[in-house]
Design a protein that fits this description.
alpha+beta, DNA primase DNAg catalytic core, N-terminal domain, five-stranded antiparallel beta sheet
Length: 584
């Protein structure tokens, strides 16, 4: 990494980007007057409060306060850090990201460069290891054990290649012999590929296993799952948490599902790597696995940002139903109208792998089509805990529903669940149901992030400059406010300088200069301030605001000089300045 991404490149990238096209590809937008809108992808809501402005190249949610430009959206929606978001946006428009030497201190530069290089080295090394495992499936002396196992599971060479499946023999240092060195040993330990042994001699974490590489959203290998061959334990061994792999955030098979489907409509969550691969072998190319954990909130957010329908397909035993319950509980705050979470519980002794091999793709998809909706699953689970034929049981059921309804945002689904409770379990608990509805409604209400509407001249000037950066040309001198002592004046002067120095700057570019600063937060709020000024009147109101600020400056300076005069502290030049101000 040579340094920072040049500011000029970021400006050029944001000038080329179309934020409406970018967001619409992930969150369908509808025209709403001058702007576009949708239900916010960053929090659950019933009515759309997420607004996207094509003119400003900016988005803002009036419900949760999330806001930003095209780079910000990729950072939040795709969970990318800033350099990766710039890379992603640049690749979308066929642009190559240059680097320039930065102005940080030498120590800070070294730290920044080291962190960047470390990350790139990690991805590169993990990719090499994945290719090594794939090669071992072809060349290892005991490769037939692995090949026969995969064939026995009904997998073809094509599907093995698509998922990058590999193999490692049951030796202590099969992988380490290939990659161990004084420079890489610690890195291999940090990445979870090796375990530090006695006398500082690391050995392979994965041995005698079929290897499943785990890819991130960009297709980079970040970890592995290994399926043991033989009687070893554990049956499946997963990479530990590392600096590039966080299992609660990733989904095995999601990258492959996106590669196989131009348009994903739904995703099926299964329990294991082999389930995902076996389903793909039979043409079900939309399965993912949650990497040995209960499906987390972060994974569910990723799922619902990708599709609107998610089906959890688990074993029908106690463990499977418990996993489903945890997934449902984590999903409740994310469910809004138009999104669906459903559940399939397979017969005893069956898993998706075995079922699709026995019955085929069509039969398996038919099972998915009859999946149990979230509302029915919730109702069934809680009803089993009470005697629904007694008044006490009905009353208890209403209480049991309360915490789960509180997690659900206001929606048609939530209203339907409450109505269903009333229809199925009425009789002596009507008042309690009314109170339940009231409490649930109150709990779901969220205070919108409000922008202060105090209409000061500084606020007007900044807001209009953000919307119409070109109006700076109407000022004969951009330095006329440099000595103004008012809240926000420093920020206004910075904006005046930027707009003057960059003739064609737009709103998204302008606000990018203030990323990760307190001023950036203030500007983002003002970007969507409903000030009511029509576009054709913007310049006049801007100049009027500047004139009021100049009058304020004259008053401030006059009072300052008069105070010095009272104390006989005026210089000859200041006496002349005061006289001019008083005669103005």
């Amino acid at each position: 990494m040579a340094g920072l991404i040049p500011r000029q490149f970021i400006d050029d990238l944001l000038a080329r980007a179309d934020i409406v096209e970018l967001i619409d590809g992930r969150v369908p937008l509808k025209k709403a007057g001058k702007n576009y809108q949708a239900c916010c992808p960053f929090h659950t809501e019933k009515s759309p409060s997420f607004s996207v402005s094509q003119d400003k190249q900016f988005y803002h949610c009036f419900g949760c306060g999330e806001h930003g430009n095209a780079i910000s959206f990729l950072m939040e929606f795709d969970r990318l850090d800033f350099p990766d978001a710039v890379e992603e946006l640049a690749s979308h428009y066929g642009m190559e990201v240059p680097k320039e030497e930065n102005t940080l201190s030498p120590a800070q530069q070294r730290q920044q460069q080291q962190a960047y290089r470390q990350k790139q080295d990690d991805y590169e090394l993990m990719g090499k290891i994945s290719r090594f495992y794939q090669q071992q499936l072809k060349t290892a002396t005991d490769k037939d054990i692995a090949i026969n196992y995969l064939k026995g599971r009904g997998l073809t060479g094509e599907i093995v290649k698509r998922f990058g499946i590999g193999y490692i023999s049951d030796n202590w240092d099969g992988m380490m012999k290939q990659f161990s060195s004084a420079n890489t040993n610690q890195q291999l330990i940090d990445l979870g590929m090796a375990i530090e042994g006695d006398k500082s001699r690391p050995y392979d974490r994965f041995r005698g296993r079929i290897m499943f590489p785990i890819h991130d959203k960009r297709g980079r290998v970040i970890g592995f799952g290994g399926r043991v061959l033989g009687d070893g334990t554990p049956k499946y061994l997963n990479s530990p948490e590392t600096r590039i792999y966080h299992k609660g955030h990733e989904l095995y098979g999601l990258f492959e599902a996106k590669q196989a489907n131009k348009q994903l409509d739904r995703l099926v969550v299964v329990e294991g790597y082999m389930d995902v691969v076996a389903l793909a072998q039979h043409g079900v190319n939309n399965a993912v696995a949650s990497l040995g954990t209960a499906t987390t909130s972060e994974q569910l957010q990723t799922l619902f940002r990708t599709v609107k329908e998610v089906i959890c397909c688990y074993d029908g035993d106690r463990a499977g139903r418990d996993a489903a319950w945890r997934a449902m509980d984590n999903a409740l705050p994310l469910i809004q109208d138009g999104f669906s979470l459903r559940f399939v519980f397979l017969p005893d002794g069956e898993d998706p792998d075995s079922l699709v091999r026995k019955q085929g793709r069509e039969a398996f998809e038919q099972i998915l089509n009859t999946a149990t909706p979230l509302s029915e699953f919730l109702m069934e689970h809680l009803s089993k805990q009470v005697d629904v034929n007694s008044l006490e049981g009905k009353s208890k059921l209403v209480e049991l529903f309360q915490p789960y309804l509180n997690k659900l945002p206001q929606s048609t689904l939530k209203d339907g669940i409450i109505t269903s409770i009333a229809n199925r379990f009425v009789g002596g608990v009507e008042k309690q149901l009314v109170e339940l509805t009231k409490r649930s409604s109150q709990t779901a209400q969220k205070k919108a992030v409000q922008v202060s509407s105090k209409a000061t001249p500084v606020r007007f000037a900044i807001a209009l400059l953000l919307e119409h950066p070109h109006i700076v040309k109407a000022l004969p001198d951009i330095t006329i406010l440099q000595h103004l002592n008012l809240p926000g004046a420093d920020l206004l002067n910075q904006l005046l300088s930027l707009c003057s120095a960059n003739e064609n700057i737009n709103s998204a570019q302008l606000i990018e200069y203030f990323r990760d600063t307190p001023q950036g937060q203030q500007l983002s709020k003002l970007m969507f301030w409903q000030h009511g000024i029509e576009e054709n009147a913007a310049e006049d109101v801007f100049l009027d605001s500047i004139e009021k600020l100049l009058n304020t400056f004259v008053e401030q300076r006059t009072e300052e000089l008069m105070q010095k005069g009272r104390n006989n502290q005026l210089s000859p030049e200041e006496k002349q300045e005061l006289q001019a101000l008083l005669n103005a």
